Amino acid sequence: MEIFGDVYCAQEVVENEPMMDDMIYNTAYLIPWDQESEFSQKVEAIDQQFGDRLRIRYNNLTAPYTFAQLM
């Protein structure tokens, strides 16, 4: 999604299908821990830019299971 172009300090990005009818974007970003604060600030700025028109839900303390591969 174009609006998230400047938050790409991620090592990996996985775009998933939306899980609900009112969800428009569902993506996982693998962020180095030392860059998490910068990433969080950028996401917060995007959230404020849209005000009440869009709600961004950001979970920053989850295990990176999306990027794990079972062998």
UniProtKB/TrEMBL annotation:
Pfam families to which the protein is assigned, alphabetical: GvpL_GvpF
GO-annotated cellular components: gas vesicle
GO biological process, one term: gas vesicle organization
Protein name: Protein GvpF/L
Lineage: Bacteria, Bacillati, Cyanobacteriota, Cyanophyceae, Oscillatoriophycideae
